[in-house]
Amino acid sequence: MPTNEPTRRRRATLVAAAVAVVCAAGIATVALTTGTPGAVPSRTPVAAASTAVATPTPTPTPTPAATTPSGPQEPVDAPASSTVAAAKGATVPVSATPGGARTEQLPNPQASGAPLVFRVLDQRDGWVQVQLAQRPNGSSGWVPTSAVTLSTTPYAIVVDEATNTLDLYRNGTVLHSYAVATGTGGTPTPTGRFALTELLAPTNGGYGPYAYGTTAFSDVLNSFGGGPGQIGLHGTDDASSIGTDASHGCVRMRNADITTLAKTLPLGTPFQVR
Question: Which of 40, 118, 119, 138 has its C-alpha lying 20 to 30 A from 157's C-alpha?
Fold first, then answer.
């Protein structure tokens, strides 16, 4: 995590307005919920990797867009350094413009029990623009710097749907590539520039040892499983699906691979699907 808070181990019960994650075998909830076999899984928030506070560095020139049979891809979003913001207090006010009227107030910790952490998109005097985990994809808002602690991360992850691979970047360079499963033709994984929002440990089968929540939402499933169809990055009990189009939108990894990422990536890390 960008902060040095102790690991949060408490269990939080998801309420009616919970966020749902679209998963390969069904819909998993990015929060704790008591379930029976076949229901949404129970999860415990865990601490993500930490990064030291540092001065943000400029974003390098984007990699030129590649061309696929379906058309050009977006340039890779893997900056050498990204700024993340961790909430300091019990709530964080959000405004549409720097210094503008408050449009909403976000709780810290989140409903899942995970700490509230953002990817920072821009900075102005006393304010930071952050990516929000809400529809439509790409939503953002401005929060006062006094309400957050800023730090940086050298990591980014980029998922390529055409090849079903996930590239882990460090300092703008590919550190490792992993095979993944992405969405099917009817329920594709949405493309765009997103961020990791929470790290959870499933307590029932099907989803592997760890699951990241993200700021991405399904373009097809607008409402599912009691929530708005939030996309997750998680492990799986079906290793044979890795490398295929197999999910309802989530990105599925081998359990050893998601465990590696859980020990490496802080919340707020850039997460791109292209």
Answer: 40
Neighbouring residues of 60: CB distance < 8 A, sequence distance ≥ 6: 79, 80, 172
List the pLDDT tens digit at each of the 274 positions of the chain.
Answer: 444 443 333 333 332 223 344 443 333 333 322 222 222 334 578 877 754 333 333 333 343 444 444 567 789 999 999 999 999 999 999 999 999 999 999 999 999 899 999 999 999 999 999 999 999 999 999 999 999 999 999 999 999 999 999 999 999 999 999 999 999 999 999 999 999 999 999 876 788 999 999 999 999 987 655 557 899 999 999 999 999 999 999 999 999 999 999 999 999 999 999 9
Residue 230 phi, psi dihedral angles, 5° rounding: -75, 140
Judged by DSSP in three states, 168 sits in strand
User: Residue 44 is which amino acid?
Assistant: T
Instruction: In whole angstroms, give the CA distance from residue 122 to residue 111.
Output: 26
243's CB contacts (< 8 A; 6+ apart) are 164, 179, 180, 181
Distance separating alpha carbons of residues 30 and 38, to the nearest angstrom = 16
Q: Which residues, including other chains, have CB under 8 Å from residue 92's CB and lie 6 or more apart?
A: 105, 106, 108, 116, 143, 147, 148
Instruction: Tell me the one-letter amino acid at 138.
Output: G
Q: Please confirm, yes or no, whether 176 is among the known catalytic residues.
A: no
Per the structure block, which two tokens stand in for 59?
A: 């974003």
CB 198 within 8 A of CB 212: yes
Marked catalytic residue, from 23, 176, 248, 250: 250
Q: Tell me if residue 248 is catalytic.
A: no
Give the integer Cα–Cα distance in Å for 172 and 158.
Answer: 11
Written as six digits, the tokens of 38 are: 């076949």
Q: In angstroms, rounded to a whole number, what is the distance separating the alpha carbons of residues 90 and 29?
A: 23
